[in-house]
Amino acid sequence: MKYIVILADGASDRPLARLGGKTPLQAACTPAIDRLCSRSRCGMISTVPADMPPGSEVANLAVLGYDVRRVYQGRGVLEAASMGVALDDDDLAMRCNIVCIEEGKIKNHSAGHITSEESLQLIAALNEQLATPWIRFHPGVSYRHLLVVRGGKNDVECTPPHDVPGTPFEDVLPRSRGGDGATARLLTDLIIRSQDVLGAHPVNQRRRAGGRDPGNSIWPWSPGHRPQMKTLRELYGLRGAVISAVDLIFGLGVYAGLETIKVPGATGLYDTNYEGKAEAACAALRDLDFVYLHVEASDEAGHEGNAELKVRTIEALDQRVVRPISEFAAALAEPVTIALLPDHATPCDVRTHVHDAVPFLICRPGEEPDGIAEYNEESCRRGSYGHLQGDEFIKALLRR
């Protein structure tokens, strides 16, 4: 048996008045997903414990079957692995967004989805003016970058910028969680100084002239040290691959022992190369046991609060990813189990991740379906799997 997990990041939501009281999953036209659902068994899953942050780093660890309380070390270390940045045991790594601050408030977490080419120039300027032998910025994709502090202590509480749009940035600066507070003071100093470096940078002058949001501040968050994780081959005997446009997911794949497959034109946004991702997944299924296909677009639409765009991303997933993968799997000589789920909900009305349970389906060849004909938050509550928690999903998928 082969397995593919199609991870629709943040696709789950809450009923929206502007969608007639429906969620985006309910409002979207998804014939391929619903056909798959009608051949599946369904349920709901809570991927993140109530006392942990409902971020993609925790949720995807749980979906892949890890004990998140034991292995979770923040987002930064996963992105470092994806970027090929080697970490020593005392290195503190963290995600470092380039954000837009306007009138002292965080306008958005992405600097208006700044391009990778533009942000590469900004990261170079930060390294030129702020880096030291123990502080280094590493460029990533679009607004998503990495900050590594050699000898840093993970005794600091940082606020994800996508959680606080419209908030005065001084109200959510890094805070000490005990210790001497040195790491919190260092990060706060870097944020303030970055605004001087980036504010007048030619990249941002051109963005302002073009009516676009400037990337005028860094925002470090999700710090951690290098995690200790077994691979999926060690845990479950699986040889697999991960496909994404997001460094976080690739880094998780590195620690999980998965081959990382990068698809040209994969952006993490609504304009991503859906067809390329589907083709890469099908090619990987020919040779491997397990494919983890991550599609980010719906999550970004949720962060923007754009319900109509979120519906369109779900419909694109249906026709440009789920349909061709379902057709390929049906024609493959070896049976393929297909699973579909979000990692977490990103409701458009709150524009950030929440702890809500999310719907999932598992379509296993030869298994009797449970009669759920539509895939959404309401119908899957009636599914035969009931309400799972954390690593119970991978156990259900693999029958472990």
Question: Biggest sheet: strands side by side, in what order?
Answer: 11-10-12-1-13-14-2-15
Which range best describes the helical content: under 10%, 10-25%, 25-40%, 40-55%, 55-70% or over 70%?
Answer: 25-40%
Task: Give the termini separation.
Answer: 14 Å
Shape: globular
Number of helices: 14
**What composes the largest sheet?**
8 strands, mixed
CATH class of the largest domain: Alpha Beta
Q: How many independent structural domains?
A: 2
Judging by the overall fold, what is the CATH architecture of the largest domain? 3-Layer(aba) Sandwich
Number of strands: 15
The radius of gyration over CA amounts to 21 Å
Mean pLDDT: 95
Give a brief outline of the structure:
The protein has 400 residues and is of the alpha/beta class. The chain has 14 helices and 15 strands.
Give structural attributes.
400 residues, 36% helix, five-stranded antiparallel β-sheet, 2 domains, alpha/beta, eight-stranded mixed β-sheet, 14 helices, single chain, Alkaline Phosphatase, subunit A
Topology:
Layout: E1 2-8, H1 24-27, H2 31-38, E2 41-46, H3 56-63, H4 68-71, H5 75-83, E3 91-102, E4 105-108, H6 116-130, E5 135-141, E6 144-150, E7 156-157, E8 175-176, H7 182-199, H8 202-209, E9 217-224, H9 232-236, E10 240-244, H10 247-255, E11 259-262, H11 274-287, E12 290-295, H12 297-304, H13 307-331, E13 336-341, E14 358-363, E15 387-389, H14 392-398
Parallel strand pairs: 1-12, 1-13, 2-15, 10-11, 10-12
Antiparallel strand pairs: 2-14, 3-4, 3-6, 3-9, 5-6, 7-8, 13-14
Helix pairs in contact: 2-13, 5-10, 6-7, 11-13, 12-13
